[in-house]
Design a protein that fits this description.
2 domains; 182 residues; globular
Length: 182
């Protein structure tokens, strides 16, 4: 139950994306509806994989990584997800929660929305991951009043005005992508 409480916003975002897609596409058959819902739910949780990538592959020497591995080996999943949720903001270099990955996600979501194919799972997955990424970005900005961690690829993070402009641009891009769903 604690895991659900910790990730209820991810679930809410995923379900909201699914409802938006279903409302705009007006699907009537069960398989496309299931594809949209499952793609959305998976997309909402996909960004959480980053913490396991950091713990096991990219930066296993961090204290965060050691604690994640310890919780996982003890099979204390409630403690694991609670720890990740409470300490994820302490990570400085993240692979997935970064402006570069978010930009690529945005392009993938735009491609999925505008392509002539009817892969509703890919559409829901890419859109849900992009919206979740936008929420994670906003959450970090509210917590730290900066997105310096999202711009770790640069030697010095951009000025606060540029960060605010980036948030605005991504927000407008998200609205544009949502307007293209049909």
């Amino acid at each position: 139950m604690l895991i659900l409480k910790t990730y209820k916003l991810n679930l809410l975002i995923s379900l909201t994306v699914a409802v938006i897609i279903l409302a705009l596409r007006v699907e009537k058959e069960i398989l496309p509806i299931l594809a949209i819902i499952s793609g959305s739910l998976l997309g909402g949780l996909l960004l959480e994989v980053e913490y396991f990538i950091i713990a096991y592959f990219s930066d296993p020497d961090l204290e965060f990584s050691k604690n994640v591995v310890q919780f996982a080996t003890q099979k204390n999943y409630v403690g694991l997800f609670t720890y990740i949720s409470a300490n994820k903001v302490s990570l400085e270099k993240r692979l997935i929660n970064s402006f570069l990955f978010q930009f690529i996600l945005g392009l993938l979501a735009l491609y999925a929305v505008t392509s002539s194919g009817d892969n509703l799972f890919a559409l829901a997955l890419s859109l849900s991951v992009f919206v979740s990424s936008f929420y994670h970005m906003y959450e970090e900005y509210e917590l730290k009043r900066s997105l310096a961690g999202w711009f770790w690829i640069f030697k010095t993070p951009p000025a606060k005005q540029v960060q605010n402009l980036y948030i605005l641009a991504m927000g407008l891009f998200l609205v544009y992508i949502l307007s293209q769903i049909s």
